[in-house]
Sequence to fold (427 residues):
Amino acid sequence: MKSFIYRLVAHNALTGLAAGLFLAIQGIFLLEKGVEIWQIGLLLGTYAVTAAIFELPLGAIADLYGRLKIYRLSRVVYISGVALALFSDDLYGLIGAMVVMGISQAINTGTVDAWQVEQINKKGHQESLQSYLSLFEMAMAAFIALGAVVGGYLPELIDHSLLGVQTNWNLVAVLIVVGIHLMVSPFLFKEGESKVELSDEQRSVKGQIKIAVRYGLRNSTIRLLLLAGLVIGMAVANIESFWQPQLISIDDDVSYSMFGWITMGYFATAIVGPMLTGILGQLFGLKPRVFITVLPALSATAVYFLASQNTIPGFVVFYFGFMLTFSMINPAVSTELNAETPDDVRSTMLSVFSLSFMGGAVFSAYVLAPLAKSLGISQVWQIVAMALALYSLLKVFQWVIQTITKKLASSVSGSDVNEPLKPKSIA
Fold:
């Protein structure tokens, strides 16, 4: 089991390193390519909407044709998208790159994530699922932070004239890391493909999607998780799209390395977040739904104050505060979603959840990004804060109603209606 955990940590580390190298300069890269500030949101929204369109059909093929095989295909497509962005010098080329990378994300969703949960269950460690998922998330966050620091210095250390704009070197580094990751994947996932029995209806992409969606809509816990994904996706996409331009508006003399260090700190808090979730859960017996209810309200507070900052230290504090609360939600959401989902639709269900998250990102790009042009980034972030707060209020109200209903039903039947139902194969 130790070898398996170490290899999955290495997988998440390589994934995080590649992500950090680009995230450190994401907004600056697009600005250097000549796009306007408000177009950054539209470009990232193109990525999100492409992933959303292809999420279910491409996510379902992992259940049908093999999760590891489809994962490797996604990495090849991603390399193509990054290369296209590297050599694009106009808006249309960058749009094309975002489309290709969005397709890669749609292919990737639910591949290794589903495979690792099945392997943990197969090895008889279901009770440690949340701990392992938290460890994987911390590894990814740690290496996103490392990649961000390296990515912040790359444009300053290498002669930019060799590749046009300075931040192009970050994309070269991403291509190298992803290429290495692809080559070592047979070792990282040496257990091989999972064997999942499927019904006749599930042996087509359409049938697999139909069953997963039907199962999700009938399961009240999964319905709530899909709503959480929608709201959180909107918030994360908007903050990620505009934090660098907003920082420049506070101080237009910010260095590349400063962006790298801030990105590093942002994801360093993502290491602390899952740890806090585990510690608080063990100390006070808090269930995942408590975190999913309370933390969006704390995120709303961080975003609201972030919008009003006019100094770099104040901006950094509330920017990190947002990431901390967001990262604390992830283990709780992953644990509940995987606990409620049977193996034979796991990849497809993870794609359904990812679709809800991407749906929030699409809303951010095509509704909130244009508003940023007319109202300003600060005002849009206040709208995001209100949406997060409203979600928490709705969750509290729904939680109260469900608790009252369960108590009434229990008093009538005399049975323990709180006993959780374990997901079974629906093949």
